[in-house]
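Q: I'm writing up a methods section and want to include an example of the input and output format. Could you take the sequence below and give the corresponding predicted structure tokens, formatted cleanly so I can copy it straight into the document?
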Amino acid sequence: MLSTYVITGMTCGNCVKHVTEEVKSIDGVRGVDVQLDGGRMAINSDGPIDIELVKAAVAEAGEYQVRAD
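A: Here is the clean output for your methods example:
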């Protein structure tokens, strides 16, 4: 299942790296593609991922905000 999100607050490649690592740790996530330009994130997962889990993972990565696209 593919889900897309918008992330604000990322400013560099390290931001992308931290968000990717945290979101990958969510159970059921198979892959994550985070793009600095445009602040887009795509999650490939086994099934629906609770937006609150995504928000918590992104918050753990840093001072970023996320919303469903």
